[in-house]
Amino acid sequence: MFAKFKYRVFLIYFACLAMLGLLGWLDYSTGYELGFFIFYSAPVGIAAWNLGRWPAVGMSLVASMAWALADSYGGQKYSTRFAFYWNNGIHFASFIINAVAIARIKLELDQRRQLVADLKAVRTALQTVAGQLPSCPVCGQSHNREGRAGTELCVSQPPAELDAALCEPCRSLSGKSK
Ligand SMILES: [Zn+2]
Fold first, then answer.
1. In angstroms, what is the span from residue 153 Cα to ligand 1's centroid?
2. Ligand 1: centre distance to CA 140 (Å)
3. Where on the phi/psi map is residue 158: left (φ > 0), alpha (ψ -120 to 50), or beta?
4. Tell me, what's the pLDDT at 106?
5. Contacts made by residues 89-92, CB under 8 angstroms, sequence distance 24+
6. Mean pLDDT score, 68-79
7. How far apart are the CA of 168 and the centre of ligand 1, in A?
8. Model confidence over 14-26: pLDDT tens digits?
9. What is the pLDDT of residues 94-123, one digit of tens each?
10. What is the 135 CA–ligand 1 centroid distance (Å)?
11. What is the DSSP string of 68-115?
C-alpha cells in the first residue's frame, strides 16, 4: 500500500510538472500577447489538493519560472527590469495564495470526514452499550426484559436509538421533552 501511495505521489508530481512544461511551451509559442496565467494555476491547485501545502508551494515556484521563461522567450518587452520582476512576483504570490487556500480546504475536509467516521463508530458503540445496560441510567430501575418492547440483549443487533437504555417511563418522558 505504501508503494502504491508513493507511486501515486510520484505520478501527480510528474503530471503537474508535465502540465507546466506544456503550458510554458504553449504560452511561449502563442507569444506574449495571449495570457495563460489562469492555466498555470491548475497544476498548482492539483498539487495542493493531492499533495498538500509544501509541494504546492514548490509547484508555485515552478509555475512562476515556467511563466517567466515563456514570457521572456515569447518576446515580451518590458521598459524596465523591475516590471518583469513585479509581474513575476504578483504571479508567484497568487500561486502561493491558491496553493495555501486549497491545501487548507482539503485538510479541513479530510479532518471533517475523519470526525464523522469517529462519531459514527462511537455512536454505534454507544447504541450497543445502551442495549446491554441492566438498568435505566436515568432512574436506576432494573430492566424487566419482557418489558423492553421485544428488545433482546444481543450485540449483533444494536438498538436503533440510545433511548433503548431507558425504562419505559423515562423513555416516554424524554420523548415528551424533545
Ligand atoms: Zn428510567
1. 17
2. 6
3. beta
4. 96
5. 91/37, 91/40, 91/63, 91/64, 91/67, 92/60, 92/61, 92/64
6. 82
7. 7
8. 999 999 999 999 8
9. 999 999 999 999 999 999 999 999 999 998
10. 8
11. HHHHHHTT---SSHHHHHHHHHHHHHHHHHHHHHHHHHHHHHHHHHHH
Give the Å distance between the CA of 178 and the centre of ligand 1. 16
| Cα–Cα distance measured from residue 97 to residue 108, given in angstroms and rounded to the nearest whole number | 17
Q: CA Rg, the chain, in Å?
A: 30
CA of 157 to the centre of ligand 1 (A): 22
Domain edges within the chain: 2-119, 134-177
The set of residues, in sequence order, having a beta carbon less than 8 Å from that of 164 and lying 6+ positions away, is 127, 130, 131, 148, 151
41: cell is 494555476
What CA–CA distance (Å, rounded) separates 53 from 20? Answer: 18
Cell of 87: 509581474
What is the whole-number distance in angstroms between the Cα of residue 169 and the centre of ligand 1?
6
pLDDT number for residue 160: 58
Output phi, psi for 17, to 5 deg.
Answer: -65, -40
Cα of 166 from ligand 1 centre, angstroms: 5
Distance 146 CA to ligand 1 centre (A): 15
